[in-house]
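User: Hello, can you help with two protein structures?

Assistant: Certainly.
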Amino acid sequence: MKMAANLKLLSFLIPCAFLVPVLITMAPNLKGAWNSEALQNMKTVFISIFLEAAPFLLIGVLLSSLMQWFVSEEMIRKLTPKNPVGGVLVAGLLGIVFPICECGMIPVVRRLMHKGMPPYIAVTFILSGPVVNPIVFTATLLAFPSHPEITIARMGLAFAVAAAIGGLVYMFVRQNPLRKPKATVTEVKTHPGFKMAQPHSHSTDHDHVHDKNWRSFFIHAGDEFVDMSKYLVIGALITACIQTFISRSDLISLGNGPVASYAFMMGFAYVLSLCSTSDAFVASAFSHTFALGPLLSFLVLGPMLDFKSTLMLLSTFRTRFVIGLSLVIIALVFAGSWLIKLLA
């Protein structure tokens, strides 16, 4: 089995051996291209996106490691509301107590789900937490000082979308959506209508139990950070390329129509992959170009679903679940922002 894996890896390395001489031959041209203004801008954008998100990811994995120590499965079961409506409402407001950016939210929620948190509560927390918290509330007020209704509408729409999706997950998701090797899990019931995947003692993922000492704490935190940061790096790199090589004027020209403006702002939020604590300042630059509805779609969709968080979700949840979740988020954010614009 090991030999077959090595041979499979070798098949990917052989083309690289032919690519090396080509890169050496083109080295002077490549060096000049890399030092061009556009690529310098790309590197700057990439570094800014990564440095903006990395601290929140680090906070998330440190909280995840603390939960590995101090939060037991029994504690999660006691604190989880038995009533699904109460569970969704509590999860939607947890961001007020735990103001974590979307970059750090996923490792925290993954740990809580391994401890026994039901998926509908976890998903509600993932979607609402990055928006419904005091840091984002303050940042949005500062970005739109003369339009406090935008801040209120953002908080309300984010909570409503997260609660609605939490309810849908409760009604329709019966299996644990976490991504796990099939050979290392058994199913145990942890909540009515939900089967929790329980790792065997020989599981190879990062959820095995360490001794409770500082060394194991930092080993667990390091494992989590490396596991999640590679998706952050890929997402930040692709986002930086799109921001650098596609001009904003070309993107704005795509959003002239009443529906296209929503599609543009939602797509723009997905591509930019900004942190929820800073995206309001980007949105304020479009306040004279777009109406309330498109601005809200940008402010609500971005923290719930962007390129880098999609990769991180795919590393945590099953692909089918992430696809379905993404489609529902897009549909509800569009419908909600459209409705608020009509009522405003």
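That covers the first. Now for the second protein you mentioned:
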Amino acid sequence: MKRYRKLGATVALSLMMIFSAACGSNANNGNTGGENAGTNAEAGAAANDNAVKASGDKKITLGFSQVGAESGWRSANTKSIQESAGEVGYDLKFSDAQQKQENQIKAIRSFIQQKVDVIGFSPVVESGWDTVLKEAKDAGIPVVLTDRAVDSQDKSLYVTFIGSDFVEEGRKAGQWLVDQYKDAQEPVNIVELQGTTGSAPANDRKAGFEELIKTNPNLKVIASQTGDFTRAKGKEVMQAFLKAHKDIDVLYAHNDDMALGAIQAIEAAGLKPGVDIKIISVDAVKDGMQAASEGKINFIVECNPLLGPQLMEAVQNIMDGKEIPARIVTEESTFTSEQAKEALPTRAY
């Protein structure tokens, strides 16, 4: 990878303050960072001025290709990236792939043609990126992955991956279920709403979950199908599950939106979500936390969408020629219904 010119600008202290507020929004910490809002705004403005001055009036240009707007989590993720780029004064070239890999590849090639300084993207699926990432490497443009990884064997095609440990999220979901049914003497029938086929979170959340539940032979996944991470599809697939299976004990949804769609189907069938069918979900966005606070979702594994500050920090470090870790993991929590009720009033997303 070519040597990047040093701009001399430093990442504003506000980035770390913002990220700390994002990570702190759980049942054990109600501080949303509001008391520091004025300080953050002033520091953000200073960072903006410094970034422009240090580059000779030329802003750092970041090209970012987003998966789409399929869920509340994704919307929060997009907002975090856009606002964080604005706070540090970067020129953000943003593209919405509408959940299509071909759109992302087209966007990345457009960023290469525009000679952006850094490319960031959250890949729709794991496979099929080597060619376009090689094009970015040949053009001397560093790439940062956010939220989702790629399965390329050539790790030199990107600088770092910022995001959650999806396997660990699946393990957390599975461990809660194992603990809940440790004394079960009869089969516990589970249905699974998977995320987008081929995507890293779908693959990994399934793998982590299966790793844990196989320790109890009574825990059985009787049906598993993609819901594409959307509420509408989650409802549709859950309706099909309910028609095909009269003895569903547990639903494991790979994200809140699918769980919320499934809740609609469960209620329409005359059943009580969270009681007649236990529900486990991943994300912990506000709508999911609201459902959990009402007892409709029994357990939520958090997946923090507020990756903007970490992304901007990584971009700045790349431009400054600094070494950064190849893997940056976000900090996350879990919530029972009671914990969700406590955390909801100060939830940042």
